[in-house]
TrEMBL record:
Pfam families: ApbA, ApbA_C. Residues 5-154 form the Ketopantoate reductase N-terminal domain. InterPro entries: 6-PGluconate_DH-like_C_sf, 6PGD_dom2, KPA_reductase, KPR_N, NAD(P)-bd_dom_sf. Residues 197-318 form the Ketopantoate reductase C-terminal domain. This is 2-dehydropantoate 2-reductase.
Amino acid sequence: MTRYVVVGAGAVGSALGGLLAQQGVDVLLVARGEHARAMAAGGVTLRCPDTTVTVPVPVVTAAEDAYLTVDDVLVLTTKTQDAEAAVTGWADVPVHGPDGTVGRVADLLPMLVALNGVTGEEIALRYVERVYGLCVWFPTVMVEPGEVIVRGTPRRGVFHVGRFGASTDPSADTALFDGLVRDWEPAGCLVRCPDAVMEWKYRKLLANLGNVLEALLGDASGAKDVRRAAQAEARAVFDAAGIAVVGDEESRAGWQPDGLSFESVPGEPPGLGSSSWQSLARGTGTIETDFLNGEVVRIGRRVGVPAPVNARLTGLARRAAREGMEPGAFDVDELRARVLT
């Protein structure tokens, strides 16, 4: 029986693990701090638009506490800025078979990279043989330890998955994908297996360029011009770099299947938002904008296409995280003046 070991179980990882565990799928959540202690003591509470449920889940706080076997699949759900530390911490962990240790994670186990942005897969591939991109369309928020808001209803989200890098065993990839469909879809997590998963992740990156606006402004509805400018820069950069991106119509069809809509959760304001918003709300001191808007800037510099709007947004985001600002610290007119001029 496959077990899904969710590394970096914050909002996305805890929600996914809880939904799978509710259906009897074997999971192990790897978390830290108060969130890990709360889940270990009382399970993970999933608050959805249509239901609230608390699910018992096994939890560990370190790689050495997880006894890994050949039936395990690692699902990386950290923030991108924490990915390298997480991957290096797991790459050399021993994997066990019926007769003892048979190798390391790096050589044997699949790792699904369920991160925003497009750099997590490259980070993982430096250390792990079997790397798979996982494009996550799954709005979740973790505000209180042990409690996660899941906004999808009645289905919960869509996950596009594909091999990253060359495969030496396509049959193993197919078996993994079939297992994901079998285990995840009963939990409301729809699995799609496109030929080019990174085209989906670059399309998701375009959507995520607005995360920083939610974080800095709180309510980003008045900054649509800034969002459009950031996305226009990104499209110009991707075109110059020869990067393929899923088209608008295909993405709408892929992310809006029958039975999936995103609604408010009773008792919570509708403005609870992106992972960047959550980072400022929790005062983590870091924010992943450098791997979202900053990725556009990096690629643009490589191909000679400036991306000043995205560069300025990354600078403001770093400042907000460094100085402990809360979401909504900037006024929209002030932001527009700083970014668009």
